[in-house]
Amino acid sequence: MKTEHAPTIRRTDYQPLAWTVEAVDLYFTLDATATVVRNRMRCRRQGTGPLVLMAEGLERLSLTIDGAPAETVRETDTGLEIDLPDDADEAVVEVVTRCDPSANTELSGLYHSGGGLYTQCEAEGFRRITAYPDRPDVMARFTVTLEADKAAFPVLLSNGNLVDSGDLADGRHFAKWDDPFLKPSYLFALVAADLVVLERRETTRSGREVLLQVWVEDGNLDRAGHAMDSLVHSMRWDEATFGLELDLDRYMIVAVSDFNMGAMENKGLNLFNAKFVLAKPETATDVDYEHIESVVAHEYFHNWTGNRVTCRDWFQLTLKEGLTVFRDQQFSADMLAAAGGESARAVKRIEDVRVLRTAQFPEDAGPMAHPIRPDEYQAIDNFYTATVYEKGAEVIRMLHTLLGAEGFRNGMDLYFSYHDGQAVTCDDFVEAMSEANGVDLDQFMRWYSQRGTPRLRAEGRFDAAARQYTLTLTQVRPDGDAPLHIPVALGLIGPKGADLPLTLAGEAVGTVTTRLVELKDTTTTLVFEGIDAEPVPSLLRGFSAPVILELEEDDRRLAFRMAHDSDPFNRWDAAQRYMLRVILAMSADAAKGELPQVPEPFMSAFGALLHNEKLDPAYRAVALTLPAEAYLLEQMSPADPVALRRALIVLMRHLGERLADSWLGLDTRLAVAGDYRYHPADAGRRALRSLGLRYLCAAGVSQGVERALARATGESHMTDRFGALAALVNSPASAEAAIALADFERRFAKDALVMDKWFAIQAGAWRWIDSAQPALARIEALMGHPAFSLSNPNKIYALFGAYFRANPAEFHRADGAGYRFWADRIRDLNGRNPQVASRMARVLENWRRLTPALQSAAQAQIKALLADKALSADVREVLEKALG
Ligand code: ARG
Ligand code: ZN
Q: Which end of the chain offers a freer environment for a tag, N or C, measured as fewer CB atoms within 10 Å?
């Protein structure tokens, strides 16, 4: 592990390497504690300077150049430098190293999990496997031979096509793999494990037969089907939407229990966190099914956007991530719409924006704020962020909005025709879009260097005499003056609730009711004609740009838009804004020690949505869900988590009590008959029923609690069971909650993925706030549970992550015990797994927004952690930025 202060790497310092690798042949003698890697590279000169190889934590056994022992080798901070004769343009370099997978607790490089060996190389894990110019702009042809004990490691997988395999002496065997495509080292992967496989043969659009495989541990085959279906759907979608086909004969997905992130797009051999592969109705919720579908799609889509065309350097990460998130969002939206209609598509957009606002907006407003194409970093692993991924996807979406689906497709075609097989930059992508469409995107490029969430101020003025409505839109950039190119979709709603036709001054009378306006100046004024009565503006429809809209709207207007806005996204957003306003006022009361009051008009507006049977259950479920607590905290100044929680408890109780009959009625009416199937219509009904149980249980309504207990402990599928359990744990009915938790534990004690849910639901539970046992005491006790493990990232995210992020009122305790616990966990995790530690360290980065007493308690812990010399570069970067 690197512990010393890491240097800052800058985007503008990019230099090509003097030596690149054209072909590499790897021979692995695999063993859990001592794996030997023989690496033979055919290197080619492309500039002046030594051959640079990165290496980390490797024991070097030999190094030869063109068959002779290397002489001029220098050790550097990051690996080796080798001087080669000035007149040499080519060299065959062979290096043999040894590493210990079982000691690799960082889960980067080659590591041991559940008896098998697995790799994770993005971003810089390959240098922990062998000495190599471990950068994405070095693209080589890989051949890989794996040799291992056959009994311990019966399955041997690597990238590309299997070209040879067989038995060796002493119970060993081997497999040789050849990847016909050039690739950077971060896309290398191997698996040596005892696994079983689900297989399917499909024919691509051009008629090639391909073998699809999902590899899982024995006993999990009945949970692999949904991942396989998702893979086939992804293939079909990319063929139909972008004309992109699978380019290999074989495509493999492997589920791993210990995995730092979600999944990894290694060429032809995707490695997945098991939670994004395994699903059956008894163990996975609708949300899990949805996530699996989108992560499988995401990794599959990377095969073109990421692998065939990759990044020149890690500053370009959003080139592949923003684009691929956009592609997976579009895919999921199309899948949902095909099964559940346009309303299902709107729900997907709402969910995506909810993630953006909850995770990315706070990041962009805090000390880790960075452009989607960052300018500098210390630990690249810290930059796999909501900004690079989610905001990056919003930037791509704006291009799609500006150019239209066809123009975007043309731009993609041109991008591939220019750059297939290359490592390129974000500029290359936007230039292809620009050229294919004959549009100037220079101003649009500013989105790539823009930091912080831009604001859009809107002001409307109605002139009855002139029958005109004037809308003034002003953009405010947090980081500069140069205006951005912002697409704004907008409409005007007439007094009766119908959209008005939009005619701008000087135009012929129009019929269109939603228009796309392109803002390029700091201030844009739009004059709409033929307007007879003051309209209500509906701006940024579909969330057409990742900005914060500032528009004065009173409660009446918000209620009006909640009832009438024809844009489903904005209708939802109106409800969110109204909820936000009510909750902030209630929290202010709570902070003063007063009993928060729920305004009557809000109750009517909420009730009207609940009772609107014309709206799909799925839509009502998202529309009636309160904004995430993390988002609310971000809007509060100072952020007072305990006051916020009091307000939420009162509001939830009120909504449950007052609307109890409606929730109960709907719970009965919307029950889904028959066996579980993953389908948006069914999922929507289940979501709305579970939401109803949450409100009912929060209010302690006895019929609601009874139904929740029955559903949590009865014979149902995981979606209903977990929905009911989640309702019970946030209920004053703590006896019922305890029964349900114990029942759940008894049923699933041996199922690690399901137990993650059990840990998380307790760590995030509200009510312990009023009971004898605070959440922290429960969490400390749960750390001793036999199903818990400090070496499994999913467990860390479930128990600690849920406490830090999903339970702010309990974490930000006035006595500072939450922060002390946090600091202890970071210290401990730092030594095991810096990437996981650093993610957990980030939960306090916005500490300056807290109340003064909490600020000083948090600051003290951050300072104490920073005094530790053994802190990893990952954690240090986060904490130093936090302290500012
Ligand atoms: N490329 C992977 C994906 O988005 C994620 C890799 C994350 N790596 C990391 N070091 N955090 O699918
Ligand atoms: Zn990705």
A: C
Distance from Cα 122 to the centre of ligand 1, integer Å: 6
Q: Which two structure tokens, joined as six digits, stand for 408?
A: 């975007």
Count the residues in the chain.
884
Q: Is 630 left (phi over 0), alpha (psi -120 to 50) or beta?
A: alpha
Beta strands in 555-654 (DSSP E): none
3-state secondary structure of 706: helix
Give per-residue pLDDT as tens, 448-490: 999 999 999 999 999 999 999 999 999 999 998 899 999 999 9
Q: Which two tokens stand for residue 456?
A: 């859009």
- Does residue 157 have its Cβ closer than 6 Å to ligand 1? no
Whole-angstrom distance, CA of residue 272 vs CA of residue 265? 9
Residue type at 357? Answer: R
Choose the catalytic residue: 265, 293, 299, 736.
Answer: 299
How far apart are the CA of 384 and the centre of ligand 2, in A?
A: 9
What is the crossing angle of helices 718-729 and 702-713, to 10°? 140
DSSP 697: H
Whose CA is closest to atom 3 on ligand 1?
Answer: 264
Ligand 1 within 6 A of CB of 379: no
Nearest CA to ligand 1 atom 1: 264
Residues 6 or more apart whose Cβ sits within 8 Å of residue 738: none
**What pLDDT band is residue 1 in, cutting at 50, 70 and 90?**
very low
CA dihedral angle for residue 661, residue 664, residue 668, residue 674, rounded to 10 degrees: 160
At residue 380, the pLDDT reads 97
Query: The sheet that has 486-493: what strands, in order across it?
Result: 515-519, 486-493, 536-539
Q: CA 227, CA 212: separation in Å to the nearest integer?
A: 11
Pocket test of ligand 1: the residue of 56, 111, 122 to mutate, having most ligand atoms within 8 Å of its CB, is 122
Tell me: ipTM over 0.85. Answer: yes
Model confidence pLDDT, tens digit, residues 717-750: 999 999 999 999 999 999 999 999 999 999 999 9
CB of residue 265 inside a 6 A radius of ligand 1: yes
**Spatial separation of the C-alpha atoms in residues 630 and 441, rounded to whole Å:** 35
Q: What sign results for the dihedral spanned by CA atoms 643, 645, 647, 653?
A: negative
Q: Please identify, by atom number, the ligand 1 atom nearest to the C-alpha of residue 306.
A: 1
Phi, psi of 75 (to 5 degrees): -85, 135
Peptide bond into 638 cis (omega under 30): yes
Q: What is the DSSP letter of 672?
A: P
Q: What percent of the chain has pLDDT over 90?
A: 97
State the closest ligand 1 atom to the C-alpha of 381, by its place in the atom list counted from 1. Answer: 10
Q: How far apart are CA 776 and CA 772, in angstroms?
A: 11
C-alpha 186 – ligand 1 centre gap (Å): 10
pLDDT of residue 712: 98
- Catalytic residue check, 299: yes
For residue 421, the 8-state DSSP code is: T
Ligand 1 centroid to residue 677 C-alpha, Å: 30
3-state secondary structure 602-624: HHHHHHHHHHCCCCCHHHHHHHC
**Cβ of 293 below 6 Å from ligand 1:** no
CB of 300 closer than 6 angstroms to any ligand 1 atom = no
Whole-number Å distance, alpha carbon 395 to ligand 1 midpoint, is: 19
- pLDDT per residue over 609-663, tens digit each? 999 999 999 999 999 999 999 999 999 999 999 999 999 999 999 999 999 999 9
What three-state secondary structure class fits 218? coil
Judged by its nearest atom, the ligand closest to the C-alpha of residue 261 is 1
Residue 770 has pLDDT above 60, yes or no: no
Q: Which ligand is nearest to the CA of 382?
A: 1
Which ligand does the CA of 324 lie closest to?
2
**Residue 802 predicted with pLDDT over 50:** yes
Separation CA 587–CA 388 (nearest Å)? 33
Q: How far is the CA of 302 from the centre of ligand 2 (A)?
A: 7
The answer, yes or no, to whether any atom of ligand 1 lies below 6 A from the CB of 139, is: no
